[in-house]
Amino acid sequence: MTTQKEIIKIRKPQPDYPVMKAINDRFSPRYFSDEKVKSSDINLIFEAARFAPSGWNFQPWYFYWAKKGDASYGKIISCLAKYNRFAKTAPVLIVACFIKKFKGKKTYYRHDLGAAVMSLVLQAQHLGYYCRQMGDFNKNKLVKLFNIDINHFPFVVIALGKLGDYKNIDNKLLKRELDPRPRKKDFVKKLD
Ligand SMILES: Cc1cc2nc3c(=O)[nH]c(=O)nc-3n(C[C@H](O)[C@H](O)[C@H](O)COP(=O)(O)O)c2cc1C
């Protein structure tokens, strides 16, 4: 039987330099615990997104979220690609949207949403939660189901929660979880 400890050992980053704890602990699991996300923590997590930098300070992002048990939760799950439906163990699902224009000006929407999402993810990690972002879902279906504002473009769904205990995980999913996510090292060049 695989334990949570073993999963953490395999999936946790192994940085060459002592990066900050939230980065050092973060990975994207596919298996979450039933434990609820406290509402005070939800507030903190979105607050971190709010203070992300953005081009011209346009803040071209918008988040919709639902917790397990809400009618909307199942609807979000139904929009995910089948292989992403592992997300059904997560106590919270967040739909992160970008906004292409602000006061008639083009925003740096993908970049800025990425910054806001990463702030959110790291704040969550700092509080002991894990996130997995999923870009593969039926965006048109989601927009229709929730009658989403025409200016909000769903880009990733984020599964959020505490890490599962992995004792009852099915074998197929476990196999995917045991796959380490190595990082390339050749990505920085000092210019003369
Ligand atoms: C924009 C974006 C889209 C992603 N889409 C998916 C997805 O559809 N399904 C999935 O299982 N993981 C998805 N991921 C998670 C990545 O596969 C994961 O972050 C990557 O393999 C690195 O692993 P780590 O986050 O555990 O370090 C996505 C991540 C990002 C940032």
TrEMBL record:
Pfam family, one: Nitroreductase
UniProt KW keywords: Oxidoreductase
Organism: Candidatus Roizmanbacteria bacterium GW2011_GWC2_34_23
Family statement drawn from the similarity comment of this UniProt entry: Belongs to the nitroreductase family.
Protein name, entry field: Nitroreductase
Residue ranges constituting the Nitroreductase domain according to the UniProt record: 24-162
Gene3D superfamilies: NADH Oxidase
UniProt xrefs under InterPro entries: Nitroreductase, Nitroreductase-like
Example GO molecular function: oxidoreductase activity
Domain of life: Bacteria
Record CDD domains: TdsD-like (cd02138)
